[in-house]
């Protein structure tokens, strides 16, 4: 089979299509004929040699978490899926025995890791991690859901966002950002999204952002949000200075979930603002398989319509990463092997 492999860690030029042996499923496993695999900033961190989660000692490395397609073969003892089934992979990998695997939520597993290998014609996966896809959800839309939408949805759950709440989403135009805006809308809450691009600002309004702030300057964003109102919650995937900004903006008792660090690993926070404001800072990573099942149901019901910026053939995978790196995209980028 053909795979799009990372052959180095100098960025998008280090993606090459290579031949690898077709996988054979062992007990509990299934092989998926990959119809679509979306890419995430997580893959780009690996390709840039800057992932906090995945080392690249062993190159070539085949990344790609968000796999949708048809089951091509199953190993012994697999009866949850059969050849020909339409499925979406939940990329969580968990130990199954720690207290969080037993009590939940599973994404806090003490051995938590992620599936990689979807940027290929076939993917060898754990059959228990496959979610059934109804005919009404196409593979490309489905592949947008796992990492970006599942993470945003889990952050909204952890920050207790309810109807009419005001949610601040800095950097609202990428995978997690667009998912956040759409899910906030679906919950009957209101969003404030930011972007540095005029073109992307227009698209944010089109997908249901209630307020759009076109700026990358912390002081300017702070002044603009002050005019709109005090957020009940912040979805922060940028980290860096956006962390203190989010804390400064939150209402008394407001909550900020943090899942990323695109704008920097560190932030200096005003500690009195945290305790006098009775605020919560919540670290959050990915979500649970039931979260993903909910998102498939919401998509099938038309409550959310995943935003796919562009589709790429397997040999255009490097181009997809270059587009992400240049901040050209709005929403998700999907490779169709
Ligand atoms: N912990 C987890 O489970 C988890 C899950 C998913 C994602 N993440 C993390 O969350 C982040 C977002 O992931 P993603 O896949 O959604 O990425 P993405 O699609 O590349 O995100 C693009 C968004 O980030 C903004 N942005 C990019 N660089 C920026 C910078 N230097 N300063 C300010 N804004 C910047 C862009 O703003 P413009 O519109 O201005 O271009 C755009 O809105 C990544 O750090 C990723 O690793 C973590
Ligand atoms: Zn575990």
From TrEMBL:
GO biological process: small molecule metabolic process
Family matches, as Gene3D superfamilies: Medium-chain alcohol dehydrogenases, catalytic domain
Residue numbers spanned by region Disordered: 1-25
Keywords: NADP
GO molecular function, one term: anion binding
InterPro entries, alphabetized: ADH-like_C, ADH-like_N, ER, GroES-like_sf, NAD(P)-bd_dom_sf, Zinc-ADH_QOR/CCCR
Residues of the Enoyl reductase (ER) domain: 11-335
Origin superkingdom: Archaea
Stated name of the protein: Alcohol dehydrogenase zinc-binding domain protein
Species assigned in the record: Halococcus thailandensis JCM 13552
């Amino acid at each position: 089979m053909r795979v799009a492999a990372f052959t180095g860690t100098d960025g998008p030029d280090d993606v090459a299509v290579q031949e690898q042996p077709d996988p054979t499923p062992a007990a509990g496993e299934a092989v998926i004929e990959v119809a679509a695999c979306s890419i995430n900033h997580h893959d780009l961190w690996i390709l840039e040699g800057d992932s906090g989660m995945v080392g690249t000692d062993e190159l070539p490395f085949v990344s790609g978490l968000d796999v949708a397609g048809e089951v091509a073969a199953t190993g012994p003892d697999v009866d949850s899926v059969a050849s020909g089934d339409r499925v979406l992979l939940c990329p969580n990998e968990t130990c199954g025995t720690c207290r969080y695997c037993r009590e939940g939520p599973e994404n806090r597993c003490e051995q938590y890791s992620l599936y990689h290998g979807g940027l290929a014609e076939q993917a060898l996966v754990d059959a228990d991690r496959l979610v059934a896809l109804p005919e009404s959800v196409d593979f490309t839309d489905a592949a947008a859901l796992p990492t970006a939408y599942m993470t945003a949805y889990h952050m909204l759950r952890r920050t207790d966002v309810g109807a009419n709440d005001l949610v601040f989403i800095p950097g609202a135009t990428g995978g997690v950002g667009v998912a956040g805006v759409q899910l906030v809308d679906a919950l009957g809450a209101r969003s404030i999204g930011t972007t540095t691009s005029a073109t992307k600002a227009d698209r944010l309004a089109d997908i249901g952002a209630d307020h759009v702030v076109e700026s990358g300057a912390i002081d300017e964003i702070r002044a603009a949000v002050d005019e709109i109102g005090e957020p009940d919650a912040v979805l922060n995937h940028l980290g860096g200075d956006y962390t203190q900004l989010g804390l400064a903006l939150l209402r008394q008792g407001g909550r900020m979930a943090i899942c990323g660090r695109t704008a920097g690993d560190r932030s200096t926070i005003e500690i009195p603002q945290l305790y006098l404001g009775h605020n919560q800072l919540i670290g959050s990573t990915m979500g649970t398989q039931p979260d993903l099942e909910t998102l498939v149901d919401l998509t099938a019901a038309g409550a959310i319509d995943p935003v796919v910026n562009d589709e790429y053939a397997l040999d255009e995978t490097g181009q997809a990463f270059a587009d992400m790196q240049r901040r050209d995209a709005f929403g998700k980028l999907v490779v169709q092997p």
